[in-house]
TrEMBL record:
It comes from the Bacteria. Residues 85-161 form the Potassium channel domain. Gene3D superfamilies: 1.10.287.70. Keywords: Membrane, Transmembrane, Transmembrane helix. The chain crosses the membrane at residues 15-36, 48-68, 80-104, 116-135, 141-165. This is Ion transport 2 domain-containing protein. InterPro entries: K_chnl_dom (IPR013099). It holds the Pfam family Ion_trans_2.
Amino acid sequence: MNTTEPGSSRANNHYVAALLRPIGAMAVLLVGYFLLPIGRDSNWKVVGMTLGVGLLVGFCVWEVRHFLRSTRPVATAIEMLAAVMCFYIVAFSATYFLFSEYVAGAFNEHLSRVDALYFCLTVFTTTGFGDIAAVSEPARVAVSIQMASTLILLGLGIRFLNVLVQERVSGGGRLHDLRRRRAEDPDGR
């Protein structure tokens, strides 16, 4: 019996893991967003931001390596896109929160972290209820950047992942050749 057939426990474990990875990434990002000291009153804001960037870089490296080793590149590409979108939303939420903390009158009201996340999600989903609005020019520029980059992220991100999946599924391309050469000559001679 093939243990990777749909319905087998090994296949089911893979589907559960594929579901839990982006949910776990989202949970870690949100916990970091709410707990890392990035506000005005914190002496640890530089450490918090540095830790956040370091975790992001580590996560990106892990995601790429996971994709290259994956036996299910389509599912892995979807996981990667979900994780990138979660980071994107948290990064803009933190930006709006910091604008509200450091730039007087950036928004029509002072934003808590929850308010900033809510505002970011309304911009991301193009809902825009109008209860929170960017008032200062720098805040409006940040919101405009988010709106434009949302389109870019979705368009280019989906295209890039499509190319990676096609290359990975076909078993060809430069990545495959590089891995084959390394396997044939581990010393790089």
